[in-house]
Amino acid sequence: MTVPVRVTVELRRLARALELDEDRLEFLETLPEEDLRTLRRQIGEAMFQADRPSLLRVAALSKAVPVAVAVKLSEAVLPPLIAARTSELLEPHRAADLVSRISPKYLADVSLYMDAARAPEVVAAIPAGRVAEVAAELAKREEWIVIGSFVAQVDDEALRASVARFDGEQLLRIGFVLDDLSRLDDIGGMLTDQQIDELLVAAAKFSLWPELGELIANLSPARVERLAEHYADLDDDVRAVYTGAAKARDLDKAVLATLSG
Description:
- By secondary structure, the chain is mainly alpha-helical.
- The protein has helices at residues 5-18, 33-64, 67-77, 80-87, 92-99, 104-111, 120-124, 128-140, 144-151, 156-163, 168-176, 183-188, 193-206, 209-217, 221-232, 236-247, 253-260.
- Helix 9 (144-151) crosses helix 11 and helix 11 (168-176) crosses helix 14.
- The longest helix is centred in the first third of the chain and has 32 residues, at 33-64.
């Protein structure tokens, strides 16, 4: 049975939320994408509500001490899971002040457990440069789903700063698991010529055909035309990989036709 692309993505997100291997959730492959998304959000809400009383106490303590002290205490004694859920209860300006002083590595640890959709005001208050630093750290850890969940919540300045830190392969992997696919076209407009060349080569090198197909399906005609221009300039051996993948039905022939004209 062929599993729809968006169902595969939702299963990856659910596995990440539950900290399970993806193969443990294969029995859910027949469910619609929307049902899986609803299940993931319900699980996240249940986990948050279960810890809410203790989180409120931590948040109150954080508000009662100077920011510098709160930062030291957080990194020294507060587990990233608790820090992530507590951040959803802080005022955005307070959270942003804390974030500006905490190390990118600890912030990346916290991001693994944070539901960005639950705290959009907090995410929006984080300076663009710090968002990019954390995004780069998460990319080093190959936490594509975590990055993808934050893209829907950051503004254009933070998104542009983050995109500048990624290479073509990373961009393909992140784009495939975005919570908000409408932002793929925004990202497409931020890519450098080098990043486009890198992602086209990465698709062939790592067989990222579904990722490439999802990108092209969500780009405006002008962005797709730019990709096609770069495809025409690829080395013959790279384009031969594309042709072979299309013959083997790993790459959708319509995608190849779009790129090759």
